[in-house]
Amino acid sequence: MQPVAIKEDIYWVGNVDYDHRDFHGYSRSPAGSTSNAYFLVDEKNVLLDTVPSGREGSLLCRMAKTLDPEKIDYIVCNHMELDHAGALEAIVERCKPEKIFVSQAGLKSLAGYFGNRDWPVHAVKSGDSISTGKHTIVFQETRMLHWPDSMVSYIPEKKLLISNDIFGQNIASSARFVDDFNNDSEYEQRIKEYFYNIVLPYSPMVLKTLPVVEKLDIDMIAPDHGLIQRGEKAVRHIIGMYRTLAEQKPAQRALVVYDSMWQSTRTMAYAVCSGLEENGVPARVMSAKLNHHSEIMTELADCGAFVAGSPTHNNTILPYVASCLTYMKGLRPQNRVGGAFGSYGWSGEAPASLQEMLAAMKMEMPAQPVKANWRPGKDDLKACHALGATIAATLKERCRG
Ligand SMILES: Cc1cc2nc3c(=O)[nH]c(=O)nc-3n(C[C@H](O)[C@H](O)[C@H](O)COP(=O)(O)O)c2cc1C
Ligand SMILES: [Fe+2]
Ligand SMILES: [Fe+2]
Question: pTM value?
Answer without folding.
Answer: 0.96
